[in-house]
Write a structure and sequence with these properties.
Layout (H helix, E strand, L loop, with lengths): L7 H11 L3 H12 L9 E3 L13 E6 L3 E8 L6 H17 L14 E8 L12
Parallel strand pairs: 3-4
Antiparallel strand pairs: 1-2, 2-3
Amino acid sequence: MTETQTNRNHKSSVFTMLFSEPPAALELYNAVTGQNYPPDTKIEIVTLSNALFKGQLNYVAFVVDDRLIVLMEHQSTINNNIPLRMLMYLGREYERITKGKDLYREKLIKIPAPEFIVLYNGKGNLELVANV
C-alpha cells in the first residue's frame, strides 16, 4: 500500500486510542510542551465521541488540572483548515462544559484556557500561519 493509499481513519483511531487515557495524555503533553506536570495531576479526557462529531476522531482533548483544555491533533497531510477545525472542536467542548449553566447570569462562568497542538509527520514542508 503506498502512502497515498494509507487508511487515515486507522491511523487516526490509533492516535486517539493511545492517548485517550489520562496518564498517556499527560505524558504526551509533557513531552511535547516541555512541561513537567507530575503523574498525579488531574486529567479529564473530554474528546468528543464519534457520534457527536460526524466520525472525525483524529484529535484528543483533555483538561489539565481544571485550568487548561488541550486539543491535540495528529496530521500526516497539510491542512490549512486546522485553525477553523480546532475552533469548532473548542466550541463544542465549551458547550459540553457549560451545559446546564446559565450563560445569561451575571456571575462569571469559569472555563479552562485553550491550548492547540498539531503533531505533523507528513513529507511536505509545513509553513506555519502566524496570523491565525
